[in-house]
Design a protein that fits this description.
Mean pLDDT: 91
Strand content: 15-25%
Oligomer: single chain
Number of strands: 15
Helix content: 25-40%
Order of helices and strands: HEHEEHEHEEHEHEHEHEHEHHHEEEE
Radius of gyration: 21 Å
């Protein structure tokens, strides 16, 4: 059978099954396994991000085993190839539910991919734990979404508040032109302006842009006190940070403020001196001094290699597994959607990033946000936290 035709036929069959009212509760895995369908970017520009999530899941199972509440846990992973592949992410979700009989989905690094699966999860009555996709509105698109990662408004609004309170009067904003970027721009500006700040210019750049010099020149000519920037991490953010260094923003008297994913821990050796003095807001950095973070990093290095450096993505996947294990233990091994979702709501976890809680009303994560400064410590570039905003909720849920 031709591959494309075969796939189309299988997809059509799955669609008919859902349209006919397929009940996942009536068709659990025959051997009683707990099947976890995982959807991550494992090829293309963002493949490195996907590996962080995979290794975070592996680190969790290394510490906590592959059984919970008497059920063996089977991980079935699929590659959504990164942003801009919403249709593929939806087909993979469908495949994992119907063919692999997944009890729960873990994944969705990018907002468009999570959004594409929202209605499908409702039709199939299947919970999904989001490991990254950070646009605020996602959890409102399906009652079956639970987010254990973060939202852009959590970090951006916190950073805007901090900037206004710390002598920064004028800011230029530069964000990637997709939903998370617009969230970051919106919530940074709201908090900064509410604190008395002024936005003197703004620009949105292509999501996968690798060329920032023309945009940065406009910022230098506008002469703000600071530039606030967001882009989607990985190679794109490394390119942005290198360009900011080359254009010498600091020499022009312009501070650089970014959300933490722009300066993720495992990219710092590539960013190098470009990190000097950069202020960021985020919910995790590898330097957090806690027993849980030490356990996590040790396990991560055992599965990923002694020189590997985990970033926030690995922690989010690790915490997704912890949320699932704790919820399944709470239900005594039952995984019907209603019971599992109720078990997740209000759960508090001791994470490598600190204490986190799933808000029972919004199904979004509540967590500390750290304000960090880029510094070279012990011969290594790091984000060093110097202030903490405690138990930050997603502001996007309360003031649209």
């Amino acid at each position: 059978m031709n591959g494309d035709f075969g796939w189309a036929l299988r997809a059509a069959t799955f669609g008919l099954a859902l349209a006919a009212g397929f009940s996942p509760a009536a068709a659990p895995a025959a051997d009683g396994k707990l099947v976890v369908g995982v959807i991550l970017p494992l090829s293309g520009t963002f493949a490195n991000e996907g590996r962080q999530y995979e290794q975070g899941i592996a680190a969790y199972q290394k510490l906590n085993g592959k059984t919970v509440a008497g059920r063996s846990v089977e991980i079935v992973t699929r590659d959504d190839q990164g942003p801009g592949s919403g249709d593929l992410a939806r087909r993979l979700t469908q495949e994992l539910i119907l063919r692999e009989k997944a009890d729960v989905i873990i994944g969705y690094s990018f907002t468009p991919n999570a959004m594409s699966a929202a209605s499908l999860l409702g039709e199939a009555k299947r919970p999904a734990i989001i490991v990254n996709a950070a646009t605020s509105i996602i959890t409102e698109r399906s009652p079956y979404f639970v987010r254990v990662s973060w939202t852009l408004p959590q970090s951006a609004a916190t950073l805007g508040d901090w900037a206004a309170k710390n002598g920064i009067k004028t800011v230029y904003t530069m964000v990637s032109d997709f939903a998370p970027g617009i969230d970051a721009e919106t919530w940074f500006k709201k908090a900064f302006i509410a604190g008395g700040g002024q936005v003197v210019g703004e620009v949105r750049t292509p999501v996968t842009s690798m060329e920032y010099a023309p945009y940065l020149q406009r910022v230098i000519e506008a002469k703000p006190d600071a530039l606030f920037a967001f882009n989607p991490g990985g190679d794109v953010s490394v390119a942005f940070m290198k360009a900011a260094r080359e254009r010498n923003l600091a020499g022009a008297g312009i501070k650089l403020l970014v959300t933490g994913d722009v300066v993720e821990d495992n990219s710092l050796s590539l960013i190098g001196e470009g990190l000097e003095g950069v202020i960021s807001a985020h919910h995790y950095q590898s330097g957090i001094a806690s027993a849980e973070n030490e356990r996590f990093i040790k396990a991560y290095k055992e599965v990923a290699g002694a020189e590997a450096i985990p970033n926030f993505r690995a922690v989010q996947a690790y915490d997704a597994m912890d949320l699932l294990y704790k919820a399944v233990a709470k239900t005594g091994g039952k995984t019907d959607a209603t019971g599992l979702l109720e078990a997740m709501k209000g759960l508090t976890l001791t994470s490598p990033r600190g204490t986190i809680t799933i808000d029972p009303q919004t199904r979004d994560v509540v967590q500390d946000v750290y304000i960090r400064r880029g510094e070279k410590l012990d011969g290594r570039w790091q984000n060093r936290a110097f202030e903490t905003y405690k138990a930050v909720v997603d502001p996007g849920k309360t003031a649209r």
